[in-house]
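U., I forgot to send this yesterday:
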Amino acid sequence: MLTLTSKSVVVPKGAYILGDPCYVVPNADWGALLASCNYFNEPVGSVGDFKVLAFGTKWGDGCYPDNKGNKYGVDAGLIGLVPVAYATDDRKDSTLVVFETATLCTNDDGVLKFGDYIVDTVLDAEDEEDEL
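Result:
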């Protein structure tokens, strides 16, 4: 289990890919991005002129739904925002989001909010199946 704390970041207006950044950050840059933010222990990393926001999920890898019917497969234990201009075309398990204004993003111990997109990573897909 990951130990999380509440964190918040305001991202500039723009178009982003919401999902696990490991799927859309260019492979050649992944190591440098992780090093720039202490493996996302700090929620914002950068490579060149691009900044990437990512929050750790409560239970690491898995599949997590949002409040809009999207699902996010996670292999790096992270869900975040990658600027569209920086993202690769392989957008597995991700959603295009466009923020018209600067937008607050928060991690409240595994409940991740990116504007009006809410991804609750506290209750994962396996937990939901157990409740049925």
